[in-house]
């Protein structure tokens, strides 16, 4: 048990507040509770109800390439100003987003991009292994499927597909290049429009992202973690620990982990840290199915040209993707979710037909301009830790992030080099 000696000379169990009950915060709380700390998990909405609720459910360890790449420069004008395109920028948000995009463009430089790629490779390498160990301990192995995923191509010629294939191989990703026949043998419900695919054999998906979050949180609560649904307004380090202000009250703890994703900026500003984070809004459309999901798909299928993904889940087929820069508080544009179904009609021969019960959703991905999260001990606050900004890979990197935060809080050396993830890069 992690203890400290109080003023009377007695051993006292150390306490930790984890702010944010998405998949990142849940994993941090579970790891710290397992290490003997008394953890309080805090969230204004509830467990798993933010960006972790209705995402694509894809443990995308193959995604080691930062989003900032030079080829995007020529596509950006067309992409950004099509309100229903795969990437959209709200006119009202345009001015506010300029500083973020300037840093994003700077990270296209080959030296920075290569450095960021290596950092993502290190973080993703054992990400699924950490999940399988957690889910086995929680007796919830049914929530993860290890059947890999496909990236399918309709119009790209074989030369381009082979170049992409070699690109992944060079990055150490387990991948196979399949032709049309091989692709359709693997997934018979794919459309004849599909000519090639890349089969990522070592990735995974969950049948229910929300159930995954709640199951891990319940596992942590069985170990003694407590949860409070409350808004956090400020965090302050004192001589004796950390004070977390909640609903005009104060929670005093020994340590604090800030893991509230796209909503982290205000708390970090209060601690005098600059965080150039954007709410990269993603949409999903869940289509209920009456038959087993395997009748439609057995693994996630992403479209290279249409830039979205289809994932089979327990009772739904989930269509997810698109990027929208419009800030945290703008109303959702659910036409962006509806258009996913039109795209799916080009990818699948057969879609679920019950339109009345389909469910559209929007969540704010916490995106930083270099595609790396912030995972570190606060440079000027030794009792405060950051675990945020995981952009498209929050689900993927949840368990490894929890492990790293546990190692930092206990004063052990992290299992990978976390220097690239420090907040210092922005301060």
From TrEMBL:
A matching Pfam family: DAO
Kindly state one GO CC term assigned in the UniProt record: cytoplasm
Looking up InterPro entries in the UniProt record yields: FAD-dep_OxRdtase, FAD/NAD-bd_sf
Q: Which GO terms describe its molecular function?
A: oxidoreductase activity
Domain of life per record: Bacteria
Q: Which residues form the FAD dependent oxidoreductase domain?
A: 16-408
Q: Which Gene3D superfamilies match?
A: D-Amino Acid Oxidase, subunit A, domain 2 (3.30.9.10), FAD/NAD(P)-binding domain (3.50.50.60)
The record's keywords, sorted A to Z, are: Oxidoreductase
Q: What is this protein called?
A: Putative D-amino acid dehydrogenase, small subunit
Q: Which organism is it from?
A: Colwellia psychrerythraea (strain 34H / ATCC BAA-681)
């Amino acid at each position: 048990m992690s203890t400290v000696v109080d003023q009377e000379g007695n051993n006292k169990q150390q306490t930790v507040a984890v702010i944010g009950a998405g998949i990142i915060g849940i994993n941090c709380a579970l790891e710290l509770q397992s290490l003997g700390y008394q953890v309080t998990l805090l969230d204004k909405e509830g467990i798993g109800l933010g960006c972790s609720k209705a995402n694509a459910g894809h443990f995308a360890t193959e995604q080691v390439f930062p989003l900032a790449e030079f080829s995007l420069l020529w596509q950006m004008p067309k992409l950004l100003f099509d309100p229903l395109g795969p990437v959209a920028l709200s006119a009202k948000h345009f001015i506010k987003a300029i500083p973020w995009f300037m840093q994003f463009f700077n990270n296209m430089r080959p030296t920075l991009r290569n450095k960021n790629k290596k950092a993502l490779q290190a973080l993703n390498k054992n990400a699924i292994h950490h999940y399988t160990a957690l889910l086995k301990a929680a007796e919830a192995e049914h929530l993860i499927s290890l059947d890999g995923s496909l990236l399918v191509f309709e119009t790209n010629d074989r030369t381009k597909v082979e170049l992409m294939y070699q690109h992944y191989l060079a990055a150490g990703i387990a991948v196979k290049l399949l032709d049309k026949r091989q692709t359709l043998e693997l997934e018979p419900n794919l459309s004849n429009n599909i000519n090639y695919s890349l089969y990522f054999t070592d990735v995974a998906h969950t049948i229910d992202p929300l159930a995954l979050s709640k199951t891990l949180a319940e596992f942590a609560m069985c170990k003694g973690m407590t949860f409070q649904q409350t808004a956090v307004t400020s965090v302050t380090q004192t001589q004796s620990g950390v004070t977390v202000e909640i609903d005009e009250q104060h929670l005093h703890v020994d340590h604090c982990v800030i893991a509230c994703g796209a909503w982290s900026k205000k708390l970090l500003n209060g601690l005098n840290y600059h965080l150039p984070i954007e709410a990269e809004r993603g949409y999903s459309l869940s289509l209920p199915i009456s038959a087993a999901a395997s009748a439609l798909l057995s693994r996630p299928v992403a479209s290279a040209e249409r830039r979205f993904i289809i994932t089979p889940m327990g009772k739904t087929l989930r269509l997810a993707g698109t990027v929208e820069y419009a800030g945290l508080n703008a109303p959702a544009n659910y036409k962006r979710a509806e258009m996913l179904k039109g795209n799916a009609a080009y990818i699948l021969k057969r879609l679920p037909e019950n339109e009345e019960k389909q469910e559209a959703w929007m969540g704010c991905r916490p995106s930083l301009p270099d595609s790396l999260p912030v995972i570190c001990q606060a440079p000027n606050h030794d009792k405060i830790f950051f675990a945020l900004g995981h952009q498209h890979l929050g689900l993927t990197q949840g368990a490894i992030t929890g492990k790293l935060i546990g190692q930092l809080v206990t004063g052990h050396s992290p299992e990978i080099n976390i220097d690239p993830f420090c907040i210092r890069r922005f301060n």
